[in-house]
Amino acid sequence: MDDPQQARSALLREPNFRWMMGGAIISALGDQFTMIALPWLVLVSTGDPLKMGLVIALMSVPRAIFILLGGALVDRYSPKSMLMISKYVNTVLLGVLAVMVFSGHMELMPISALALAIGFASAFSIPAGTSMLPNVVAPAQLPMANGIMMGIRQVTMLAGPLLAGMLIALFGDGSRAGGNGSAAGIGIAFALDSASFLLSAWTLSRVRLLHAAPKAAPEPVLRAVGAGIGMVWNDMALRTSMLYWGLCAFVVGGAMQVALPVLASTVLHGASALGLIMGVHGAGSLAGMALSGVLGKFRVRNFGTTVLLVDVLVGLLLIPLGLVLATWQAAALLLVIGVLGGFMQVAVFSWLQQRVPRAMLGRAMSIFMFIFMGVAPLSAALTGWLLQYTTLAQLFGGAGLFLVGAALLAWLLTPMGTIADGAMPPAQR
């Protein structure tokens, strides 16, 4: 089916995919309520931004530590079963948070313990969720299905915080200035997210695994994790790609996380400018994901060359970002960066899902996510340190030149430019 419109219509007519898509919309929207409500709860109950940051960190630490273990268990027990369990666990955890808020028991220690547990559950839900789609749709439908699912996630990231903020402000945000200190809005946000997990678990129960892989043979979990790492390392394309992506994320990721807020506060118009340029970047990502559905499997020569070419373009766009003097200039650059990033995000996930044997997919996706989760805090810390000694122009210029140089060196000195779409060679399976 060559016509993208017909292919999209055929995919959307599949009951299996519709159940999964419906659950994804419900769950992703609910996630945004907790992303707003949890840090706000800590802030209004303690008045300490440092404690708020520590609680948020508590969610990310177990996720990064246990995600490789989660990937091994996904391969052993199937992504659907692990995703179902994680949804039920999150239903209970968020329900407890809602009860605590409604009852007025908002002590830091139990909130921290629940945040830790939510992060632990996500170490299993993330590899399960990213491994699920190849078991639901045909291989030829994967790029389009990924584009739709990632687009849904992007839309909820744009709309969810706005809805959550309105709900919390309307029913009470816990601050005395907000109306007698009522925190009912925060409790309602947690309750809605709890209900979203329960409802999405029901929609997931309606999904049948049409292309399910045989379960991994029972073996010690740590040995299974090692087998997954060994599989990635022994496949030249996977090893080269993940090392390259990890290096680029380490250098460039901090510029987006740390330097952009500094740019907004020192050069542009403060928080409003940051919100605008990040919103534009998110809209660009959504457009890039939609573009992937229109263009299909668009490649310049092959997958690897396309990745490197896009990185060169993004690097060239990063260089002038530190020289902007107006919000519209930063927004224009980030819009194009977002489009390119959204398009490649769909391509990368689809390539990984098609490249890796199904029995190892949970572990491969967990390794992929582990690289970025582990690199993110290190990159942010490095960027913060560098900003003490460099200007924004030097930082963005250096990050952009590094990305261009890394792509060119990868083209010249590594097999990255020769990596094609398709499954792993049989000898490596």
Automatic annotation (TrEMBL):
Its main location: membrane. It comes from the Bacteria. Pfam families: MFS_1. Keywords: Cell membrane, Membrane, Transmembrane, Transmembrane helix. SUPFAM superfamilies: MFS general substrate transporter. The keyword Transit peptide does not apply. Signal peptide: none annotated. It is a multi-pass membrane protein. Residues 234-429 form the Major facilitator superfamily (MFS) profile domain. It is found in: Cell membrane. The chain crosses the membrane at residues 21-42, 54-73, 85-105, 111-134, 155-172, 184-205, 243-264, 270-295, 307-326, 332-352, 364-387, 393-414. This is MFS transporter.
